Amino acid sequence: MTDLQITAVRKAYGAGTTVLDGLHLTVPGGSLAAVLGPSGCGKTTLLRIVAGFLRADAGSVTLGGRTLTAPGVHLPPERRRIGIVPQEGALFPHLSVARNVAFGLTGLDRAARRRRADEMLDLVGLSGYGNRMPHELSGGQQQRVALARALAPEPQLVLLDEPFNALDSALRAGVRADVRAALQATGATAVLVTHDQQEALSTADLVAVVRNGRVAQCAAPQDVYHRPADPWVAAFVGDAVIVSGTAAKDEATTPLGRVALAAPPSGLREGLVLLRPEQLRLTDAAADARGTVTDVRFYGHDAMVTVAVDGMDAPVDVRVPGPAPVRPGGRTGVRVTGEGTLHPVPHVRH
Amino acid sequence: MPTPETPAAQDSAAPSRGPAHPAGAPAPAGRRRGRRSAGARPSPALFVPACAAALLAVLPLLYLAVRALERGPAHAWDIVADERTAALLGRSLALTAAVVPACLVLGVSLAWLTVRTALPGARAWSVLVTLPLAVPSYVAAFAWLSAAPGLAGFTGAALALTLVSFPYVYLPVSAALRGTDPAQEEVSRSLGHGPLRTFLRVTLPQLRPAAAGGGLLVALYVLSDFGAVSLMRYDTFTRGIYTSYRASFDRTPAAALSAVLVIMTVALVAAESRTRGRARHSRTGRGTARPAAPAVLGRLRLPALAWCGTVVAVAVAFPLGTLGYWLAVGSSATWDPTTLTDTALTTLGVAAAGAALTTLLALPVGVIAARHRGRAAHLLEQAAYAGHALPGITVALSLVFFAVRYARPLYQELPLLVCAYAVLFLPVAVAATRAAVVQAPPVLEDVARSLGRSPLGALREVTVPLAAPGIAAGAALTFVVCMKELPATLLLRPTGMDTLATRLWTETGAGSFAAAAPYAAALILLAAVPSYLLGRHRT
Amino acid sequence: MRRPLARSLTALAAATLLIPALGACSDEPAGLVIYSGRNENLVGPLIEKLEDSLNTRVEVRYGDSAELSAQLLEEGDETEAGLFLSQDAGALGALSKEGRLAPLPSSTLDEVAPSHRSAAGDWVGVSGRVRVLAYNPDKAATPPDSVHDLVKPEWKGKVGYAPTNASFQAFVTGMRVLEGDDATRTWLKGLKANKPKAYEKNDEVLRAVDEGEVSLGLLNHYYWFAKAAEEGEDKIKARIHFLPEGDPGGLVNVAGVGKLKGADKKQSEYAQKAVDFLLSAESQKHFADETKEYPLAAGVKAANGLPPLDSLQPPKIDLGRLDSLKETLAMLQDVGMV
Fold first, then answer.
1. HSE value, Cβ hemisphere, 13 Å, CA-based, for A278
2. What is the pLDDT of residue B283?
3. What is the distance of C-alpha C115 from the center of its chain?
4. Which pLDDT tens digit goes with each residue over B223-263?
5. Residue B381 pLDDT > 90
6. Shortest CA distance to B107 belongs to which of B522, B535, B456?
7. B148 touches chain C (CB under 8 A)
8. Taking 70 as the threshold, does the pLDDT of residue B535 lie above it?
9. Residue B533 neighbours by CB under 8 Å, 6+ apart
10. Cβ–Cβ contact A167 with B under 8 A
């Protein structure tokens, strides 16, 4: 299988600006991994090192057992068999759609190239668009052509660099699904670089959260969301409710009441308990925690209610389905369902 | 190009509150992607030919070193340190200081009027205002002098040079104006800035690299010009160099003075690249910007038309009219159409060869200048420019020097003349190539690399085709300046060969202006064709 | 959008194809190559006659005399040229000084008066020109007989001259040789104070005189004859006056010719024949009739309307000493004329 193995990759631009700080990442063959991180976390640098556009200062990259980058080894991009889908597609504006797709097909005769290009356009749902010029396509179509172009030479790995950024949100979900389907159809290993947690969680098989040039957590989307490695990851991949708690066995006592703990900690007693807003319920019945509603935001499919819980410094968010049953200023009870995770209190940040 | 810093992609479907980044999220200084990092070395396939081009361009400097130091450094220093040298330098700089701002005003105003406003006949104007490129400076100067002898001196020299060289500013600035994003101007207007303030604070700063590049070419043109200043009797550095050859038949002072000119050029190029360096990020290169809605001129329509009309009248119509007058009044106008045709064909041939070689040599230098930073890239570009302010005679003599020693079979054959054009006009083509390549997004090269192309393959199949219009524009410009070239052509042409410029020189030298007029007219009309194409470029 | 440029590139490439066709014109190797600082229009017809006379092809590279001499100095022994035809004595003197000219046989030298040839015996004058005073009879009924009169108040603002022109500078150099630097400087200052009008070329000076812009003009004699030929003698108002009695303003300068070292034996022979041809009656007559210059050899008489050269009483001066042009320029710059 064409596993992508990134080992202890380091990259610094000049003195003092370390971008990648010994990053490790393994992407199993055939899966789609998302590299998720805030701007400036080094995810783009990582992508350019994997693609071969940048040289790493240290560390190695192997793909299906082939060494691409290692100390003293730097395979040029054109020999890596890695397809890239840049932001906004970056189609060659001077070539037709078909010639864009066929660009990487060398060593085939003209008819075979054309056939393969048509096949790929078919795969991304753009049959019959071959003779158009890139500027005659919509943004989503351009992005799909860019994918077809990357997939045409049957690369071992496809790198997608924030490919849905430029698309408007209505289009995004559709293109995302098409891209996922096309990748699955070809069985290519893929790495999607993004700073959009929704995109990462909904598209990828595996999410690697990158912070300060290292992978903070790499796991399946649901694990990253529900069992974040630390409060930072929790807050980065979604809305988080963070309360202090004292653990006893597989439960923690918090200002919101008792919370069941997933993966009970060994030896840790005092810490932060992480919950998601949808784990909290508003209740009229007597509850362990009560508070005053300070804000209600309606999103259509659900609503978010902010409650200043009595005895807590920071307010908590509660996600409720449908129209919110409360108004700002009203009193309400809050209770917790499901499991939380317990983490040590960070030394500096909180 | 990707701009990861843009916090635009807050997916509205995600019910997130506030910024997605938790407090205290680390944010190391972001690196712009897409650009080549400082460490990336140009490929040898690019670097080697670029070095060859640069070496050719610095040949005159080697010659100057040999000649200037012939009688010891002390002698050379005496010449350079002479107070007359300082005076000449001052006069040359004064002329440059007058012509460059005038060209900037003309070039920028005309570019704005023809690109961004609802000026009636904007397309026609955009072609007409590039035509002065076709007028040799000596023809312009002669036309003015014969109409108003009182202009002789600083005023006349500044006038003639401004009117022939402002298109060097007009062309890049109008291209840049087409490329700027009108959204920024709209934002400025919405923030309460009037049109003028918006132009000065938002539009103009974005035009600075283009205007500075054009201004540099104008400055070097003014420094190297001999035709206009000699006719206008304004003593400049170049005239000092010529006088040194003519009066004392002495090559040492001429070489020492030329070396000063080279130092001045290097300083100017450095100043220009500083401007460029600061403004590097002004273009985001995000595809094609939406074309701006043309500004309505309103009450300014007539003054704007009058401005364009006046410029075209004095810069194009006037010299052509003067030629027509000579043709009409002179009795020596018994010119031979066959000779004229032959000469015109020869001129086209050598100018085309000159433009082709110059463009070819400029390609690797321009690409490296556009795509790479660092000392080597900088030096290469500097080298291409270094000899550009040298008068043609100096460049020609340096090629005589090297050719008779090391390339005797080429001496006074076409290839050497074509090489001389390349040495003289390399910067013109380098500037055009660099500007064109900068506009081709580097991410496309990355994509091509990932699809199996070597660096050179990516360049050939993606960047060069994309930059082709700009590179062709540079070739057209080079073609025009090659056609007009005189001093190097006189010395290096195959014996017996005539171009329109040498014929024109012969006829005016014999005082038969009526006989000269057809050659001057043919020169202007032929040079007008590429100028016309340049004016239509990207409109 | 990109089409016109694509087309122009194609045109450019197509035009490049013309190049081999250009090279094709030099099919037969030339027996003699001449570098000529004299204008093609003036000597071109003579070169054709020379070709017939030598019975070989003659190639001519036209250029500025001084630039050609710089080129010849750069070329050294590698030069293709066998002969240098110069507009003035100075450029020949510079080559002679650097030892680039081959000696001429005395039979050739003797054709020309010693004052019109190199003292070193390596170049000869082939035609002469005289500095004259052009005047407009409407403005100046009786022109002065000496350039020294031009500093008088009566000519204030009425004199036209071409201070940057080589012919004027040669005249000033002659004046320095004849009268010394101090006297010349005083005269130049006086002239400058008299506010003369400066022009670029002699023919512009003549036009200014003709149109009454100025009353007097300092120039070479043949400009008047050229203008008379182009426009008709009766159509021009200006007349010329030859300055008598050795006045420095009446300097005679020559265009000359020298053989170059470095030419092979065959070409040297052709070059020698060409020198003799230029001094022959046929050529001397050409200069007299076509360029209205003074013939210097073979007993040929000057054109009608020109006073004979030996009647002119020009200043006695060694033309080889006219190469101190640098000092002249410095003086002109000091005075503020150039």
1. 10
2. 38
3. 16
4. 888 888 887 878 888 888 887 777 667 778 888 888 888 88
5. no
6. B535
7. no
8. no
9. B473, B476, C4, C5, C8
10. no
**A149 Cβ under 8 Å from any chain B Cβ:** yes
Residue B160 in tokens:
């003639």
Cite the DSSP H helix spans in A88-191: 97-102, 110-123, 139-151, 169-186
In chain C, what residues touch B345 (CB-CB under 8 Å)?
A: 18
> A240-343 domain in CATH 2.40.50.140?
yes
Beta-strand relationship, A270-275 and A241-248: antiparallel
Residues 6 or more apart whose CB falls under 8 angstroms from that of A259 comprise A245, A251, A252, A273, A275, A336, A339, A340
Under the phi-then-psi rule, with left for phi > 0, alpha for psi from -120 to 50, and beta for the rest, what region is C298?
left
A316: closest CA of chain B, how far (Å) = 12
* Among candidate residues A193, A197, A280, the one with its CA nearest the CA of residue A234: A197
Amino acid at site B123: R
User: For residue A320, what are the β-bridge partners?
Assistant: A303
Answer yes or no: is C223 a known binding residue: yes
Helix axes B513-536, B464-484, angle to 10 degrees: 170
Question: Quick one: fold of C29-127+253-305?
Answer: D-Maltodextrin-Binding Protein; domain 2 (3.40.190)
Q: Which helix (H) or strand (E) holds C231?
A: helix C221-231
Smallest Cα–Cα separation from C170: which of C96, C252, C112, C63? C252
CA distance B305 to B327: 30
In the predicted model, what is the mean pLDDT of residues B72-81? 80
- CA–CA dist C280, B302 (Å, integer): 68
A59 CA to centre of own chain: 23
Q: Could you state, in order of their start, the residue ranges of all structural domains in chain A?
A: 4-226, 240-343
Instruction: Check the annotation: does C222 bind a ligand.
Output: yes
The secondary structure of B90-138 as a DSSP string is HHHHHHHHHHHHHHHHHHHHHHHHHHHB--TTHHHHHHHTTGGGGS-HH
ipTM of the complex, rounded to two decimals: 0.77
Residues 287 to 306 of C: which have CB under 8 A from any B CB? Answer: none
One CATH from 1.10.10.10, 3.40.190.10, 3.40.720.10, 2.60.120.10 for C129-251+321-335: 3.40.190.10
